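Bench notes, afternoon.
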Amino acid sequence: MNREITAIIKKDMKEITADRQLFITILIVPLVLTLVLPSVFLMTFYFLPEESADLQAMIDLMPDTALNMEMEELMITLLLNHILPMFFLIIPIMASSVMASSSFVGERVQSTLETLLYCPLSLKQIFCAKVLASFLMSMLVAGISFSAMAIVLGTEIYLLTGSVILPGISWIFVMFIMAPAISLTAITLIVRSSARAQNVMEAQQRAVFLILPLIFLLAGQFSGLLLVSPQMLAVFSLVLVLAAWVLLKTSMGKFCSEMLLKR
């Protein structure tokens, strides 16, 4: 990575941290999604009557090896390793969309777009620098969010049950494959839209469609229609990685100065 690309990445990340409104959005939303709502889910699952029809429908989908657990451990495992992984994937999408949506729109608003185009980098390198800056920020937010969630939920589970329940293999797929892939997909879509958009909201519109499948999966789990297993996550991971690679290559091929300068 040359110095010019590194300079653009540092500039974009510095601008986000300097913008109080954007920076608070990046911090507050993951805080609610990883600390408040999972804690509410945990308390609800823990104190939910065992004869609840919705809970029983989800338990019936659990693998046979899990049915030997005590009911408390079974419910916590269901929440920790099957529901929260899908729920957590909303975070890299939202974190990346906040920064990526202002990538070229911000340059246009600050009247620095023409200066950016005069830098000693090709358009593809500029595009990659913008994508990489948003990707690094989203992965940083995702890593901090997961660490905070693991500490808080681990403490709450220990206080409730007196035992330690560790995250399962599902989180390996989520943190190291799915979160980076879905973040890269969202960023590529938004940065490409940002090149043409006149405001941040217009650039963010495409990222909404990435959240909808996650909401449907969550709704399916809560209704007892399906249970996202590690095998399903492995398949989703491969599909997302392929989609992210194809989208990035396609977007770079179509990226041109006319897209940026068009009003």
